[in-house]
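[step 3/7] inverse_fold.run input=structure_tokens len=323
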């Protein structure tokens, strides 16, 4: 395939891979939503439909031994960091074959082997651990970077400020990725954030910051690559604010009475990162159908895998308890 060079070093071939991965995350989350509504999945569920370009743009810029910590909206990050859809789906079904051995569910997805230090139900919970991981990389002189994902609402939490403060003081190789979707549950940005430009949060700590359009995977990838290079090179941490859209409710089943009725439909028309990438790539109908069929097969396969999985037994309850 001819490689058309676009902005920066992102080839058309790589962009197609991004497209496939974003579509896989979308179809996976749609399926999860469907199975949850059918009563098959235990627990509570947040999907990140609309935010796929941030997960893929950042995770594709990582090296294999870099690590991440995620949030309550973690499926996309987990898939993009390399967890197999089967293992993720099995986890959501509470099966032993799941990435957290069925103990965690949607908000506690771990895959340490693949550098995923875990999702966090506690808003802002991932950031301190990421500073610790980055400090370890620095002490061991390893060229690795630790990356925390978190939302705009999390920038109001104490751990965000403690983490940025120490990370900059110790000049650790960390990148803080804010998924700025303008909501914290049902509270809009103007009611929960004292400033418009969240990248300015970094100024208080003397930290480098960038703000990018989070619906453009190429832009996210370029900015993340630069931030990772900065951190890996020993120049200290970076705050990367990605402006994005939650094209869904806060949780599955959220009636969204706090949102203007036509807003979602309008945003889905104008702000879908997958549609934007599809338009840029000039994909033919055939291309789209082929990729679609491929990802749907993977997603359907993951449901079959999960349903055939093993239920944990009561005597397993205290296994894997470390403290
Ligand atoms: C410490 C803490 N406070 C409150 C909550 C309840 N809560 C869950 S998600 C959420 C909103 C978080 O907003 P944001 O960080 O912007 O993430 P988003 O849901 O938009 O992805 C809140 C307040 C929590 N889980 N943890
Ligand atoms: Mg938010």
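[step 3/7] decode complete -> sequence:
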């Amino acid at each position: 395939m001819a490689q058309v060079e676009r902005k920066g070093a992102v080839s058309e071939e790589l962009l197609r891979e991004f497209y496939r991965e974003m579509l896989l995350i979308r179809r996976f989350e749609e399926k999860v939503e469907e199975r949850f509504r059918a009563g098959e999945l235990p627990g509570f569920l947040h999907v990140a439909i609309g935010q796929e370009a941030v997960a893929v743009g950042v995770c594709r810029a990582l090296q294999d031994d870099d690590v991440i910590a995620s949030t309550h909206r973690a499926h996309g990050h987990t898939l993009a960091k390399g967890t197999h859809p089967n293992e993720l789906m099995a986890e959501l079904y509470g099966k032993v074959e799941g990435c957290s051995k069925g103990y965690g569910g949607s908000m506690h997805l771990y895959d340490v082997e693949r550098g995923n230090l875990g999702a966090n139900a506690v808003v802002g919970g991932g950031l301190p651990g990421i500073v610790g991981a980055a400090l370890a990389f620095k002490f061991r002189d390893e060229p690795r970077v630790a990356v925390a994902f978190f939302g705009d609402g999390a920038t109001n939490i104490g751990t965000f400020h403690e983490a940025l403060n120490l990370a900059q003081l110790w000049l650790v190789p960390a990148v803080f990725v804010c998924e700025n979707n303008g909501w914290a549950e049902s509270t809009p940005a103007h009611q929960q954030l004292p400033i418009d430009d969240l990248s300015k949060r970094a100024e208080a700590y003397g930290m480098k910051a960038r703000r990018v359009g989070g619906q453009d995977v190429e832009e996210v990838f370029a900015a993340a690559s630069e931030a990772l290079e900065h951190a890996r090179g020993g120049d200290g941490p970076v705050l990367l604010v990605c402006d994005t859209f939650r094209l869904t409710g806060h949780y599955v089943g959220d009636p969204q009475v706090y949102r203007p009725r036509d807003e979602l439909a309008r945003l889905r028309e104008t702000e879908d990162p997958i549609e934007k990438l599809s338009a840029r790539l000039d994909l033919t109908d055939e291309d789209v159908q082929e990729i679609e069929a491929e990802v749907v097969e993977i997603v359907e396969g993951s449901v079959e895998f999960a349903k055939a999985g093993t239920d944990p037994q009561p005597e397993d309850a205290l296994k894997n308890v470390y403290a």
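[step 4/7] annotate
The radius of gyration is 19 Å.
The pocket of magnesium ion (ligand 2) is lined by residues 151-153, 181, 183-184 (CB under 6 Å).
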